[in-house]
Every structure is written in structure tokens, then in C-alpha cells.
Amino acid sequence: GTITEGAPSVTHVLGARGADGKTVGASEVLRLAAAVESRSEHPLAGAIVDAVKSRGIRIPDATRVVAMEGRGVRGQVEGQLVEIVSVRHAKERSLKLGSLEEPADRHALEGRTPVLVVVDDQVKGLVATADRIKDSAGAAIEQIKEMGLDVVIMSGDGNVAATVVAKQVGIARVVSQIEPRQKAEEIEKLQEEGRVVAMVGDGINDAPALAQADVGFAIGTGTDVAIEASDVTLIRGDLGGVVTAIDLSRQTMRTIKTNLFFAFIYNVLGIPIAAGILYPLTGLLLSPIVASGAMALSSLSVVGNSLRLRNFKPSFVS
């Protein structure tokens, strides 16, 4: 969501071919998937529900819906246990993909995200979704790198799909196929190396990592959980806000350091003279009038320097 444009969209729906040679229809695959996903806040869920609504298919009720952290979601639909899981998780459970194994691998190689619809432990269909890269993402990431910062993409998607997105926006390091808690662990590893880590996220799965990071940036268009776990909430839904926030923060720190200089230089020069350090040599003493004028000038210097931040203009324009 931080690099891609809003929610993904469904691009392909396939039904599995059973032992009897019959294939489950695409509408049935979507219908069952939407029943469970309609209770989820994941971006993939929104894509599936939108696809079902656009086809005019009635979404059945689902009960006992449970999110499986980093794996998918499951619930009871019309007396059946329906699960929407990743291909990786299905293979870990040794579920037979049958005729869907080849298209699942192909969609992943082409940069899409395939998920499987499993009914009572039987793979019944595949839904492939694709994200559109935000127009501003590549330029924003390039500018972040020009600031001297390293950029890493962390995703629960498969390695191929995550790598395709990373290449399109110029990110070299990819950490894929990880669960929400593992994102936080990856950030902790970077912190142990002495790095200061900023995390940008917008979903429930990003919340642990946002809380672990030194600075968490939540995209304002994301979930409430991510916003609550973050330190900074960006109103706009693109990475340009991150560039602006970093740029403004650095400018603010430069202003603070300059203000400290102005505050101390008058005291460093004025206090020794007022104490009479030059009197034995030159007979010079600091008049109370001059001292008060110096203090006023110090305050004016600090205030005037701080007001320069009003002229700050973002270097990134999306």
C-alpha cells in the first residue's frame, strides 16, 4: 500500500479441476472467498469483495472468521470451512494444488500475488491480484536514497512478486515471505547494528514493525491499527510525505543547532567581560545597558532564525 496505488485488483480467477474432471467455476471461487474476506481489513480482501460486487454475485454470510497471522483468513461458510491462504502456506501444509500449481507459479513470476481458496482442506480455486505502482513511488524512493538513507522493502508476498515491485521502484534489498512479527524482528536486527530505522506502513500486518521502529510513518489512508502504532501519520497516501517529513526534520534540527549557537555566543562573550576579565588590561567593563541589549539581540536572533522555517518548501512534488 505504501508503494502501490490503493488496494490491489483481481486479475485472474481459476477453479481447480477435481478427480471427476470437473472444474469449479470462477464465480463460485470468488463467492466463497468474498464471504470470508468481507470480514477482513486486508487490502486483498477489498479487491476480492469488489470483484464479486462488480459481477453482481451475492456474498453469503460467514461465521467464526479468524485471521491467521501472515498466512491468510478462514471462516465457516454454508457449513464448510473456507480458507484464503498463500501458496507458500498451502505447500507448508502439503495441500495438493493439482492443476493450479503451474498457474500459481506463473502468476508469481509475472509479479502478481496468487492466493488459494481452500474448502475443507481441499484447494478449490486460485485468485491472482496485482498492484499498480504509484506514479510518485520511484521518484520518492530515489530522493530518499539521495538523502543518504538505505531503503529496504519488507513484504509478506512471495519473493518473486516482491522483487518485481522492488525493481520497478529502484529498491535493491528485499525481505519477502515474512510474517508481521518477523518484520519487527528484521527492524530489531538493523537497530542492533547501530542503525536508526524508520518504518513506513499502512496495514494491520505493519503495526508491530511500526511500533518497533525508531520512527514509524503510517499512511493516513491505511488502517487505524497502523496509525495507532506509528509516531507520524501522513495525510497523503504516497511516499512523498516521507521525503517532506525527513527534509523538514533535518531543517528543524539545523535551526535548533543555530539557535543554540546564538544563545550561547552572547553569554560566552558577555559574561567574562561583565565579570571584569578585561578590566585589568583595558579598563573595559560591560555596561548593564549593553548587557541587556545583547540579551535582547540574542532573543531576536533565535526568534528570527526560527521564523525562517515558515519559508520551508517541500523539495518533493508528486
What does this protein structure show overall?
It is built from 12 helices and 11 strands. The protein has 318 residues and is α/β, with parallel strands linked by helices. Helix 1 packs across helix 2. The protein is elongated. The relative contact order is 0.10.
Instruction: Compute the CA-based radius of gyration.
Output: 28 Å
- Terminal CA distance reads 16 Å
DSSP summary: helix tally: 12
Q: Work out the helicity level.
A: 40-55%
Overall 3D form? elongated
Low-pLDDT windows of residues: none
Could you state the order of secondary-structure elements as H and E? Answer: EHHEEEHHEEHEHEHEHEHEHHH
Order of adjacent strands in the largest pleated sheet? 1-6-5-4-3-2
Tally of DSSP β-strands: 11
* Biggest sheet architecture: 6 strands, antiparallel
Question: Which structural class matches the secondary elements?
Answer: alpha/beta
